[in-house]
Amino acid sequence: MIAQNIGFAIIAAVMIIAAVRVVTTSNVVHAALWLVVVLSGVAAQYILLAAEFVAVTQVLVYIGAVMVLFLFGTMLTRSRIGRDSGLNNTYWKLGIPVALVLFAAMAV
């Protein structure tokens, strides 16, 4: 039981770090690859819960199909190479307190 809790904590920490990287990276392909790490962590959590069928379904459907389709669509669309300054705006400072209020409301 202790080993399962340690495994859960390690997988959860990796998932949290990867989820933060998904929303903070500026490259869409890198964000998709970090999302693959998060979805793999979800499959690992299902294995810890002894739900192997759900874990295999998670890997096949979400990682195998949806992410490949997303990356395929991203690679085929034309976009500017490099950073686009038009994507950055000044409203991100307002988003921090709004996110904290929403997090507090969901935590209650």
Describe this structure in words.
- The protein is mainly α.
- It has a domain of 75 residues: Up-down Bundle (Four Helix Bundle (Hemerythrin (Met), subunit A)), CATH 1.20.120.
- α1 runs antiparallel to α2 and α2 runs antiparallel to α3.
- The longest helix is centred in the middle third of the chain and has 25 residues.
- It is flat.
- The mean pLDDT is 88.
List the topology elements:
Blueprint: H1 2-24, H2 28-48, H3 52-76, H4 92-107
Could you provide a short overview of the structure?
The protein is an all-alpha fold and 108 residues long. The protein is built from four helices and no strands. Helix 1 runs antiparallel to helix 2 and helix 2 runs antiparallel to helix 3.
Assess the beta-strand content as a share of residues. under 5%
Average pLDDT, rounded to a whole number, is: 88
Distance between the amino and carboxyl termini: 29 Å
Major sheet attributes: none
Briefly note the CATH topology name of one domain: Four Helix Bundle (Hemerythrin (Met), subunit A)
Instruction: State the order of secondary-structure elements, H for helix, E for strand.
Output: HHHH
Structural class: mainly alpha
Percentage of residues assigned to helices: over 70%
Radius of gyration: 17 Å
> What's the total number of strands?
0
Counted by DSSP, the helix tally is 4
CATH superfamily of one domain: NADH-ubiquinone/plastoquinone oxidoreductase chain 6, subunit NuoJ
- CATH domain class name of one domain: Mainly Alpha
Shape: flat
Assigned CATH architecture of one domain = Up-down Bundle
Give the low-confidence spans.
none
